[in-house]
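pasting for ref. prot 1 ->
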Amino acid sequence: MSQSKQTVLIVDDEINILKSMRRMFKQAGYEVFTAESGLEGLALLADESIQVVLSDFRMPVMNGGEFLAQVKINRPDVVSLILSGYADFDSVLAVMNQGSAFKFLTKLWDNKVLLQEIANAFVHYETKLRQDTSLEQSKYFDNINEFNGAVESFVYENIPFSIGYFELTNANDLKRHDVALEPLLSRLQQYISNHWGKQFSLYSINDVAVIILTHGCHEQNVQIDFSRLVSGIEQDSWHQIEDNKVDVSVSFISSDDLDKTTSFIVETLQEAAVLINASSEFMALNNQYLLKKQR
């Protein structure tokens, strides 16, 4: 999802250039950040939601090429442009060949041309963002299709199975506190893998939820073991993050309660998920619940 404000960072060791560009870009409607060195620029990128970077090449300590190479590692989403004179052309060309910069701009510049190049950089940023989102959604779509196919296969072959659903309930709050969700979900998956001693498959269905599909086990035993797993998730330290609490919601159903229909099972598990806490008692879904949801 794109931000309502377009943000640009200018990095140059010449203060007059920074002031001139800040004024011009602000008048064009951009939110502008400035840095007098590569190190200062990296610090700003770590703290601010910057989308486009315009950096001078010739700077002391860390030149523009070195700076943008680090930007590419730390913030691969950012679109970077490098500004330099023709005397540095070979060095700047090397930066371009490494993929660290989107465009090379020359000093002295024409303001209209520079503003157009910045506008083009924001278009490129939005295109990259849509492509990345599409790829991520495609991955989850494939996971859900694989999960549905496995469930249908178990139903067809009359193999007993159960499905557990886990979700990072307060994901939006965690994002606002700059908590990365991907490693947190990976830790949840690792905890499940380490503590679920049965034949199972794990499926990430979005960036905050995972499904565990277990097969070939008696329903009552699986429910008991799943309740223990849920209790362990609440009590274990896997989700301890300084100053932030991680909430996990779960739901569970076995094949005996599906009545041979698996339509909308993912949506049903999502809707029925309840927050894990020390005082709540986990209960599995049953066929009556599913029939009610279908109506």
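and prot 2 ->
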Amino acid sequence: MQASDSRALRDLEGLLGEQVPPVASFDFRHFGYREERGRVVDLELQGRELAGLPDSLGELSGLRSLHLNRNRLRSLPAFLSELRGLERLSLGGNALRELPDWVGGLPALRSLNLAGNPLDGLPGGLRNRPGLEELYLSELGLEELPDWIAGLARLRRLVLFGNRLRELPDWVCGLEDLQELTVGGNRLRELPARIGALGRMVELSAYSNQLELLPDSLAALGSLRELALQDNRLRRLPAGIGGLAWLEYLVLNGNELEALPESIVRLRRLKTLRLQANPWGVFPAEQESWLRGLAERGARIRR
């Protein structure tokens, strides 16, 4: 191992009072480092009660992934800006009140997790990161989304659960590469009318909001495999929902649904279907036959 990397690990172990183990892959403990060709490339230090970091971490020039979730960090040291190859930076569950501008200047950054920090605001410096692919902004008390997110043209995953959002701006529908959108646990009354424009969407989670109706364009999400809508106030589903040909996971429990659209029997790939806690009437014979067929193919159905 490179001398600078060995020194950084020794300093870190001195701070922690325990050895940082080498690992081939990370498990539920999220603790250790992974090495390639004598360089530390991944470092996971989650839940270690860290209030600071040794300066020598800035010398890990081969580091691609740094996970610092669930520590006690109040600020990010400037020497981390030297990690020019850093692709993933995970800072969830710390005590950060601000994010330094240099984070937006990390040239290789693709994934950023800021969830669960008492941030005073989201820095506009991130608008300069068009290569960002994953952004985790959960549990930040957000009441609206900053419009600079609209410029993240390569964004594939946007996680926003547990905020105070009352609406999603229409520009979200312009994030053409978006594959996963999680907005559960907010105060949304509706989804954008153009949400069907997100043709690469694979997973949409909008559980535990105040949704009453869904836009008809939802049925145009032809790549969708997971749709979580539990614990809302939905009274009907889009008539064309049967067009979601690849859908495997559909969760509708805890709404105000009395009937399913006729087209739903076209959903032949469902593996999970949850319908409980709705005021259902009698399902038509065709839908009962469809439900039996899903069950016979091994689908997990709760009514």
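The longest strand covers residues 39-45.
The helical segments are 3-16, 285-296.
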